[in-house]
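Colleagues,

Please find the record for the four-part complex below.
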Amino acid sequence: MTAGNTIDREIEARLGEAGVRYTRARRAVVGALSRADGPRSASELHQDMEQDVPLSSLYRSLSVLDEAGVLEPHNSLKGLTRYELAEWLAGHHHHLVCLICGTVEDIELSADMEARLEHLVETVTDEFSFAASGHTLEVHGRCARCV
Amino acid sequence: MTAGNTIDREIEARLGEAGVRYTRARRAVVGALSRADGPRSASELHQDMEQDVPLSSLYRSLSVLDEAGVLEPHNSLKGLTRYELAEWLAGHHHHLVCLICGTVEDIELSADMEARLEHLVETVTDEFSFAASGHTLEVHGRCARCV
DNA sequence: TCGAAACTGAGAATCATTATCAAGATAACA
DNA sequence: TGTTATCTTGATAATGATTCTCAGTTTCGA
């Protein structure tokens, strides 16, 4: 996939600006996340990549990538933090959150709905003294696997 | 406030169905939460109620109330779980999430916007095999205190 | 008033995450 | 091409939130 390479180049550039390297471990994390269909926690990634990268390094990779703006953290069930590629890499989307098993699936909204949300967020910015930088609609319920 | 009493009666009834009592500690938790303007974590509540209830009991109260459907958990920054009164008690609302300090403020949407969201959620239910039970719009950014 | 069931508090145990630190890779450059 | 400054890594210890355990206490109904 050329898309993968493009993303890799963009990330490499971004990390360069941040003064850090795009190492094997970090590439592996990005790879696993771009293969995933939703946010993943450190331990989920650890399994996905078959213990290739030790947990402690994995956590460090995640926080480096997060600080560089390559990833976005997503706080989920049971005090777990799951990460996904940032919107500028993966596109804007929303979440289906399973209240039973905690997994999160990405979904996209219609352009119409998305436009309305954007407008709403602007309104909020004015109404409350809150500097909005983004938004996510979370739909809660039971996923297919949790019947 | 009569509202408080009404809520208390409703909660008492609900807990009765669940076969648990509405004890002093649990009342204190509900009181602190209904005074708050957004979700609160166990340790925040512990401070709010001036160590009146020991942390271990507080956690237990939270999980009992959660299981009985009186509270709703909200996963926030740094693996913290914050709770708030469930929607059937506190009304439906959305969140302003500060990415810096992690505090969450409740907001309400216009009826128009809310109707659109509801409609959207129904669409999602059909399109994906996902049994939606609720939704929240999270607006991310910096709160007034974090300039 | 007695006993079963529910509750409480203190402390130990768990789990995710972060910090530490010595050893290993890399890049720039003399 | 060796040298050095810097960035990384991996193992391990430490932290912080949350859950578990268990003995003692309270509460409700018979």
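Helices of chain B lie at 2-18, 24-35, 42-48, 55-67, 87-90, 111-127.

Comments are welcome before we finalize the supplementary table.
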